[in-house]
Amino acid sequence: MSRSERSPLLLAGLLAVAGTAHFAAPRQFDHMVPRSLPGTPRAWTYASGAAELALAAGVALPRTRKAAALAAAALFVGVFPANVKMAVDWRHRPAPQRAAALGRLPLQVPLVMWARGVAKGAEGTA
Question: What is the pTM of this model?
Fold first, then answer.
């Protein structure tokens, strides 16, 4: 299997694992939800988990790959405020936790670029 064939499946796997984690351990995600959003943090945790699972399925299927990958890129941008909130909230935690929270911030850029690359690679297959 070539790298271009593996990349969408790896992205789908990442989204599936992340989406599943939102349901398996929702408490760890609840605290990341910005307080300015309406509704409960748990509702946002479940909604984002469901979105990640749906995007995983979409990216895995060649017919829906381009649209799902573009939506995944948008999701990665959309969750950035939650990562900022986590970094701010964890600024007084022990160094390894602080480092993990801060490390999530620049990680969004390669995730967005990866999803966009998968979408671009899917243009000829749809």
Answer: 0.88
